[in-house]
UniProtKB/TrEMBL annotation:
Residues 1-20 form the signal peptide. This is Uncharacterized protein. Residues 120-222 form the DUF7029 domain. It holds the Pfam family DUF7029. Residues 287-477 form the DUF7223 domain. The lineage of its organism: Eukaryota, Fungi, Dikarya, Ascomycota, Pezizomycotina. InterPro entries: DUF7029, DUF7223. It comes from the Eukaryota. Keywords: Signal. It comes from Dactylellina haptotyla (strain CBS 200.50).
């Protein structure tokens, strides 16, 4: 049985340093939509290349197969450049800019995006070169020297406007403004990067102005608010977020990144494990077969993230939101065994290695997804059991706050469940867990501060136990034949169920018999936990594991049938 695995679509990874003197490169002004290109050895656009990593200009390392997000150029519309005051505003450095980055759309995902809001001190304002470009005749980016940007104007009037906006930096050696420049990487012209440069000298010669430009790190220019997957900043409040409003504040439903959970098909069988155990002094004896008779899943996780880095306070926001979309799962496991110890089987339906994306000099962000079928049993004797369960989750959010883990929380799900269990064996006692577990991982690095996390979501989780055979007090509560089904509370939604326990077969006569019968119980629901939070840099205090965010298990059935002999 083969499954179609959908690769996880995206990750952001940072630059690892800068050069004081970048190599001569030509200005890049896109004329249309900007597309990301692969960083693979093949150079195929938008691909996930293999091979070794690349060290690009400014000593930035791009891991093998990672896609570089391309800056979106947004020149000022020509209709807004007709009046003198409008033109003056274009040349005047600002206290804030909004930057956008795009990737390539693929059949399995939309184009990923990143948005960065930059806010700077008014003493050192900021300007985008792409806005100035339409108002000058010619631009030279590092053509005349590694630290020189030249502009040729077509009139004295335009030249005077530019000088009035810029030449104040010549007054004092500590005066400067920041110029954002888009250019091709000197070592790979397919890679377009957007970098900040300190402009601390302006020289004029006729209609030409030459700016002295020095590349500087993003972290030195001001406050940076970075949103991945079209997320929105947290409001300035001490109150923790709630599931009802996360979608409004973190996830933009028109622009999200889905992690696909679709795997398998209904009614198809495949073996998870089949073992003829060897005889050993300390090991198990017998045979074990685990078969998936109805294992499949559907739906998506949508991922968004928000990071904020302040010039003074450093990293002040680092959170990720996963939103579930139409998630459903079915687990049908058939187990036949003759063994004497606890066993656990795990079969991976989806295991997507993260494909990567690079946002130069800012953020590493790498969500990953894995989907496993899990079967865990503890038995004594021989048994045959089939456990089936289907669960549908309403759309909701999971929120991870890396700086304040106590604010992390799970969704407020009201799952709908269908289940069926069949146990048929004698002289057996067993306890088991069956289900499908999605592990959503996050790897993030923001200007050298890193975090790794794992989130386990059981969709669904079925816990059951049973005993068939002879006992002196098989049903001690009643002392005789009883049958009881405990309904879950109404808030868990509709829970149609079928329970079947065929007649037991006896393999040996006990020496003393008071009762023969069957006891069984089952619980079902959805559980979620943070398996690990590990941080480096400013997040090094994060060393957390096993934090339960959600546990909604409810009793499906509790039965005891006995016949006094």
């Amino acid at each position: 049985m083969r499954f179609s695995v959908v690769s996880v679509p995206f990750i952001l990874f940072p630059g690892l340093g800068v050069l004081a003197n970048p190599l001569p490169i030509a200005e890049f002004i896109p004329s249309g939509p900007v597309l990301a290109r692969s960083t693979s050895n093949t150079g195929s656009p938008g691909g996930q290349g293999a091979g070794s990593s690349q060290t690009l200009g400014s000593k930035w390392i791009v891991p093998a197969g990672y896609e570089v997000l391309i800056p979106v150029a947004k020149p000022i519309p020509s209709q807004l450049l007709k009046r003198a005051d409008q033109i003056q505003s274009v040349f005047q450095p600002k206290t804030s800019v909004k930057l956008e980055y795009n990737g390539v759309s693929r059949p399995d995902r939309p184009a990923p995006t990143a948005k960065v809001d930059v806010t700077v001190d008014e003493k050192h304002p900021i300007l985008e070169l792409v806005h100035v470009r339409p108002l000058v005749e010619h631009v030279e980016v590092f053509e005349k020297g590694p630290n020189l940007i030249g502009m040729v104007f077509n009139s004295q009037d335009m030249l005077k406007i530019a000088l009035k906006a810029w030449d104040w930096v010549n007054n004092d050696q500590n005066d400067y403004f920041t110029l954002i420049v888009m250019s091709a990487d000197p070592k790979n012209s397919d890679i377009i990067r957007r970098l900040p440069y300190k402009i601390d000298k302006v020289n004029q010669n006729g209609l030409k102005v030459t700016l002295t430009a020095t590349e500087i790190p993003w972290t030195t220019i001001g406050d940076l608010d970075i949103r991945i997957g079209a997320t929105h900043p947290e409001p300035n409040t001490a109150r923790p977020p709630t599931a009802s409003n996360i979608s409004k504040r973190l996830i933009d439903l028109d622009d999200t990144w889905p992690l696909n959970l679709a795997a398998g098909e209904p009614n198809n069988q495949f073996n998870l494990i089949g073992v003829q155990a060897e005889l050993s002094k300390n090991g198990p004896v017998g045979t074990v077969q685990v078969k998936c008779v109805d294992c499949y899943s559907g739906g998506t996780f949508e991922v968004g993230a928000h990071f904020h880095y302040g010039l003074i306070k450093g990293l002040t926001e680092a959170n990720v939101a996963f939103r579930t979309r139409n998630i459903s799962a079915s687990v049908g496991l058939e187990v036949n065994a003759a063994i004497t110890e606890r066993k656990k089987w795990r079969h991976q339906l989806i295991g997507a290695d993260p494909a990567g994306m690079v946002l130069f000099g800012m953020v590493n962000f790498g969500p990953s997804i894995a989907l496993d079928v899990v079967k865990e049993i503890s038995i004594a004797g021989k048994f045959s059991v089939t456990a089936k369960m289907k669960m549908m989750l309403p759309d909701d959010e999971i929120y991870l706050d890396f700086l304040s883990p106590k604010n992390s929380h799970g969704a407020n799900w009201l799952p709908k469940t269908e289940w069926e269990a069949t146990i048929n064996e004698a002289s057996v006692e067993l306890k088991g867990v069956a289900g499908m577990v999605a592990n959503a991982g996050v790897t993030a690095q923001v200007f050298g501060h890193g975090v790794k996390s794992g989130l386990n979501l059981w969709i669904p989780r079925l816990e059951y136990g049973g005993k068939v055979g002879y006992s002196e007090n098989l049903c001690p509560a009643s002392g005789n034949t009883t049958a009881r089904a405990v309904e879950p509370k109404p808030r868990y939604g509709s829970l149609p169920k079928i329970v079947s326990f065929p007649n037991a077969t006896v393999t040996e006569e006990p020496t003393k018999v008071h009762a023969f019968g069957f006891t069984a119980s089952a619980q079902a629901g959805v559980t979620m936990e943070i398996t690990a939070l590990e941080g480096t840099g400013a997040l090094s205090f994060l060393q957390i594991g096993g934090v339960e965010l959600l546990n909604k298990m409810f009793t499906l059935v509790s039965i005891c049938k006995a016949k006094v002999i």
